[in-house]
Amino acid sequence: MFLKNDIVRNHILFIYLLSLNIPFRGVVQKYPNSSWEVDALSPEILSNLLHTEIESMIDMSKFREICKIEQDWKEKLFDLAEEYVN
Protein backbone atom coordinates (compact mmCIF):
# COMPACT_ATOMS: atom_id res chain seq x y z
CA MET A 1 0.00 0.00 0.00
CA PHE A 2 1.42 3.39 -0.91
CA LEU A 3 -0.44 5.59 1.55
CA LYS A 4 1.58 5.93 4.73
CA ASN A 5 -1.42 6.76 6.91
CA ASP A 6 -5.12 7.51 6.98
CA ILE A 7 -4.64 11.27 6.89
CA VAL A 8 -4.46 11.30 3.10
CA ARG A 9 -7.67 9.27 2.80
CA ASN A 10 -9.43 11.66 5.17
CA HIS A 11 -8.31 14.69 3.19
CA ILE A 12 -9.28 13.09 -0.12
CA LEU A 13 -12.73 12.26 1.29
CA PHE A 14 -13.11 15.84 2.45
CA ILE A 15 -12.15 17.24 -0.97
CA TYR A 16 -14.42 14.73 -2.72
CA LEU A 17 -17.40 15.70 -0.55
CA LEU A 18 -16.64 19.35 -1.17
CA SER A 19 -16.63 18.75 -4.93
CA LEU A 20 -20.09 17.18 -4.70
CA ASN A 21 -21.48 20.19 -2.81
CA ILE A 22 -22.88 17.80 -0.20
CA PRO A 23 -23.26 19.19 3.31
CA PHE A 24 -20.37 17.62 5.19
CA ARG A 25 -21.05 18.84 8.69
CA GLY A 26 -20.35 15.31 9.92
CA VAL A 27 -16.87 15.34 8.38
CA VAL A 28 -16.04 18.66 9.99
CA GLN A 29 -17.33 17.39 13.33
CA LYS A 30 -15.35 14.15 13.02
CA TYR A 31 -12.13 15.89 11.86
CA PRO A 32 -12.31 19.40 13.33
CA ASN A 33 -8.55 19.98 13.24
CA SER A 34 -8.02 18.76 9.68
CA SER A 35 -11.08 20.04 7.81
CA TRP A 36 -10.99 23.28 5.87
CA GLU A 37 -13.19 25.14 3.45
CA VAL A 38 -11.20 25.37 0.25
CA ASP A 39 -13.64 26.87 -2.23
CA ALA A 40 -11.91 30.27 -1.99
CA LEU A 41 -8.61 28.83 -3.24
CA SER A 42 -7.76 29.00 -6.92
CA PRO A 43 -7.67 25.63 -8.71
CA GLU A 44 -3.90 25.96 -9.20
CA ILE A 45 -3.22 26.55 -5.51
CA LEU A 46 -5.57 23.76 -4.46
CA SER A 47 -4.00 21.36 -6.96
CA ASN A 48 -0.48 22.21 -5.77
CA LEU A 49 -1.45 21.80 -2.11
CA LEU A 50 -3.05 18.43 -2.78
CA HIS A 51 -0.11 17.16 -4.85
CA THR A 52 2.41 18.27 -2.25
CA GLU A 53 0.54 16.73 0.69
CA ILE A 54 -0.35 13.48 -1.05
CA GLU A 55 3.12 12.97 -2.53
CA SER A 56 4.68 13.51 0.90
CA MET A 57 2.69 10.50 2.16
CA ILE A 58 3.23 8.15 -0.76
CA ASP A 59 6.03 5.70 -1.35
CA MET A 60 6.86 7.16 -4.78
CA SER A 61 8.98 4.22 -5.95
CA LYS A 62 6.08 1.84 -5.25
CA PHE A 63 3.69 4.29 -6.89
CA ARG A 64 5.82 4.49 -10.06
CA GLU A 65 6.07 0.69 -10.11
CA ILE A 66 2.29 0.35 -9.99
CA CYS A 67 1.85 3.06 -12.65
CA LYS A 68 4.18 1.05 -14.92
CA ILE A 69 2.14 -2.12 -14.32
CA GLU A 70 -1.06 -0.21 -15.09
CA GLN A 71 0.44 1.18 -18.31
CA ASP A 72 1.51 -2.33 -19.36
CA TRP A 73 -2.04 -3.60 -18.78
CA LYS A 74 -3.48 -0.76 -20.85
CA GLU A 75 -1.13 -1.55 -23.72
CA LYS A 76 -2.09 -5.24 -23.59
CA LEU A 77 -5.79 -4.34 -23.61
CA PHE A 78 -5.33 -2.06 -26.63
CA ASP A 79 -3.39 -4.82 -28.40
CA LEU A 80 -6.15 -7.35 -27.67
CA ALA A 81 -8.81 -4.91 -28.85
CA GLU A 82 -6.90 -4.24 -32.03
CA GLU A 83 -6.51 -7.98 -32.72
CA TYR A 84 -10.22 -8.50 -32.09
CA VAL A 85 -11.23 -5.75 -34.54
CA ASN A 86 -8.84 -6.89 -37.28
Describe the structure.
- With 86 residues, this protein is mainly α.
- The chain has one domain (6-85).
- It has helices spanning 6-19, 25-30, 43-56, 60-85.
- The longest helix is centred in the last third of the chain and has 26 residues, at 60-85.
- It starts with 5 loop residues before the first helix and ends with a helix.
Count of folded domains: 1
- Please tally the β strands and state the result: 0
Describe the biggest sheet?
A: none
N- to C-terminal distance: 39 Å
Rg over alpha carbons: 18 Å
Put the structure in a nutshell:
The protein has 86 residues and is mainly α. 70% of the residues lie in helices and 0% in strands. The chain has helices at residues 6-19, 25-30, 43-56, 60-85.
Q: What's the helix and strand layout?
A:
Elements: H1 6-19, H2 25-30, H3 43-56, H4 60-85
From the structure above, extract its key features.
86 residues; mainly alpha; 0% strand; elongated
